[in-house]
């Protein structure tokens, strides 16, 4: 028997990259690779990269620099760059770091086995096409290994929205939805292997319009209702959504679908209509607020999450104030805020940039407000009973940790539960990043 080759994958960026890394490991599994946790004993290192902000992209080059010594000691080591930096910078990566053997864009992963063989023959391999065929369908060979209780499942990829700041439409290409039957097959397979909660993924997941079994166009809500019927699947989530694609049936599902969890990540980016227009977001602050009213009418306890960009070109103090006002009005359980980062090739890169010190200051003020809201909501959970899906042992002996339906991290001391169990838990204390509870 030949000893298996070892694969080290490091994943950056969004959940879609996490999902893709799992698929790539499976595809290379067919080539005799097993995963390792350390780059030191790897025969192949694969960085699955993110291009969303400048810092994320630049990190890749410093990370590659760290592997120089390894490669010198072990000339057979192959180094690959996958993901959105690979798509955006392609050949440039090999120019800047000649030790890179392989560059593969997010739509070409099913070609990895042939590309790996090419590198073994001493050649460089580069593929940043947007092929027609379904990469997920071709990336077969999923080993039937047992899984943890939660999993991601990509149902939609790409984006046609072209927000003026964003690279995703260029790195991931146009919106494509996977057919319903393939998603259901994959979901049933995950459940058989121990998964109890599935998060449906897409860069614009609520724009999902995959073909149903009879060829008819599905909506995300229709897909969720089909998944609701899968025995053994207990929880369904989805991310990331765009406000313009929150269809009536999806809002209604939040009120009526028993397995759909009361949590919604719905980025708005800014509270200023002037800036939203310049961002090409095609919604206003008011239309977003009215939308949230309708969602909360359907599911009053839903926990809202969002994304914000501060310091977008030409943002004034008054524009920023409008963002703070919007946050005050919504009250977020979670929110992610970023300082605008100039991305080459996007329309906003050409415009008058905000003073970086001013942008830093706004970011701090926004984050202070968001942290306060987050803490208030966590504190308000004390005394309430939530359902927790237990995922792993906690830090202390006997402790078990999991997530509530609102995605709060909850831990319970000496809990008579196992991984994958769902139990009612009464919250007794709130810390900065987690809640403590007792089995109810
Ligand atoms: N498809 C999702 C997520 C896009 S990327 C959506 O439309 O919401 C995740 C977040 O990164 C975005 O919501 C945005 O807040 C942030 N982001 C994207 N481009 C950025 C840039 N150039 N500078 C700073 N933040 C950015
Ligand atoms: Fe980027 Fe906008 Fe598309 Fe989201 S909707 S991925 S922010 S272009
Ligand atoms: Fe980053 Fe690409 Fe995801 S740019 S956020 S890894 S889609």
TrEMBL record:
Residues 5-121 form the MTTase N-terminal domain. Keywords: 4Fe-4S, Cytoplasm, Iron, Iron-sulfur, Metal-binding, S-adenosyl-L-methionine, Transferase, tRNA processing. GO terms for molecular function: 4 iron, 4 sulfur cluster binding; metal ion binding; tRNA-2-methylthio-N(6)-dimethylallyladenosine(37) synthase activity. It catalyses: N(6)-dimethylallyladenosine(37) in tRNA + (sulfur carrier)-SH + AH2 + S-adenosyl-L-methionine = 2-thio-N(6)-dimethylallyladenosine(37) in tRNA + (sulfur carrier)-H + 5'-deoxyadenosine + L-methionine + A + H(+); N(6)-dimethylallyladenosine(37) in tRNA + (sulfur carrier)-SH + AH2 + 2 S-adenosyl-L-methionine = 2-methylsulfanyl-N(6)-dimethylallyladenosine(37) in tRNA + (sulfur carrier)-H + 5'-deoxyadenosine + L-methionine + A + S-adenosyl-L-homocysteine + 2 H(+); 2-thio-N(6)-dimethylallyladenosine(37) in tRNA + S-adenosyl-L-methionine = 2-methylsulfanyl-N(6)-dimethylallyladenosine(37) in tRNA + S-adenosyl-L-homocysteine + H(+). Its main location: cytoplasm. It holds the Pfam family TRAM. It is an enzyme of class 2 (transferase). CDD domains: Radical_SAM. GO terms for cellular component: cytosol. InterPro entries: Elp3/MiaA/NifB-like_rSAM (IPR006638), Methylthiotransferase (IPR005839), Methylthiotransferase_CS (IPR020612), Methylthiotransferase_N (IPR013848), Methylthiotransferase_N_sf (IPR038135), MiaB_methiolase (IPR006463), rSAM (IPR007197), rSAM_horseshoe (IPR023404). Residues 145-379 form the Radical SAM core domain. Residues 379-440 form the TRAM domain. [4Fe-4S] cluster 1 binds at residues 14, 50, 84. The keyword Signal does not apply. Its EC number is 2.8.4.3. Its cofactor is [4Fe-4S] cluster. Binds 2 [4Fe-4S] clusters. One cluster is coordinated with 3 cysteines and an exchangeable S-adenosyl-L-methionine. [4Fe-4S] cluster 2 binds at residues 159, 163, 166. Monomer. NCBIfam families: miaB-methiolase (TIGR01574), MiaB/RimO family radical SAM methylthiotransferase (TIGR00089). Catalyzes the methylthiolation of N6-(dimethylallyl)adenosine (i(6)A), leading to the formation of 2-methylthio-N6-(dimethylallyl)adenosine (ms(2)i(6)A) at position 37 in tRNAs that read codons beginning with uridine. Belongs to the methylthiotransferase family. MiaB subfamily. This is tRNA-2-methylthio-N(6)-dimethylallyladenosine synthase.
């Amino acid at each position: 028997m030949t000893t298996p080759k070892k694969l080290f994958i490091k994943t950056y960026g969004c959940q879609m990259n996490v999902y893709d890394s799992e698929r790539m490991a499976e595809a290379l599994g067919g080539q005799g690779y097993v995963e390792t946790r350390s780059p030191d004993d790897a025969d192949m290192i694969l960085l699955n990269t993110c291009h969303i902000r400048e810092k994320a992209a630049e990190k890749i080059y410093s990370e590659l620099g760290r592997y120089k010594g390894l490669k010198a000691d072990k000339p057979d080591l192959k180094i690959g760059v996958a993901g959105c930096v690979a798509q955006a910078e392609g050949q440039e990566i090999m120019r800047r770091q000649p030790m890179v053997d392989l560059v593969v864009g997010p739509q070409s992963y099913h070609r990895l086995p042939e590309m790996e063989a090419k590198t073994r023959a001493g050649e460089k391999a580069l593929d940043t096409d947007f092929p027609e065929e379904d990469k997920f369908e071709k990336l077969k060979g999923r080993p039937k290994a047992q899984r943890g209780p939660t999993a991601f499942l990509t149902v939609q990829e790409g984006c046609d929205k072209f927000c003026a700041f964003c690279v995703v439409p260029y790195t991931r290409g146009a919106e494509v939805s996977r057919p319903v039957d393939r998603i259901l097959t994959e979901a049933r397979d995950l459940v058989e292997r121990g998964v109890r909660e599935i998060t449906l993924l897409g860069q614009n997941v609520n724009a999902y319009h995959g073909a149903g079994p009879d060829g008819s166009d599905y909506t995300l809500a229709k897909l969720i209702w089909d998944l609701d019927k899968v025995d053994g699947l207990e929880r369904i989530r989805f991310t990331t959504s765009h406000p313009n694609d929150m269809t009536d049936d999806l809002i209604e599902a939040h009120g009526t679908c028993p397995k759909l969890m009361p949590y919604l990540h719905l980025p708005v980016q800014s509270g200023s209509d002037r800036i939203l227009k310049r961002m090409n977001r095609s919604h206003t602050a008011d239309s977003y607020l009215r939308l949230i009213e309708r969602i909360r009418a359907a599911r009053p306890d839903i926990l809202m999450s969002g994304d914000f960009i501060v310091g977008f070109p030409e943002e004034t103090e008054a524009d920023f104030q409008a963002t703070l006002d919007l946050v005050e009005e919504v009250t977020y359980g979670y929110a992610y805020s970023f300082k605008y980062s100039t991305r080459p090739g996007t329309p906003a890169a050409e415009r008058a940039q905000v003073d970086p010190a001013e942008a830093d200051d706004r970011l701090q003020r926004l984050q202070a407000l968001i942290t306060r809201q987050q803490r208030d909501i966590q504190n308000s959970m004390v005394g309430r009973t939530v359902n927790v899906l237990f995922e792993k042992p906690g830090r202390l002996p006997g402790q078990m940790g999991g997530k509530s339906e609102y995605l709060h991290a909850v831990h319970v001391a000496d809990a008579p539960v196992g991984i994958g169990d769902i139990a009612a838990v009464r919250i007794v204390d709130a810390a900065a990043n987690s809640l403590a509870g007792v089995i109810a």
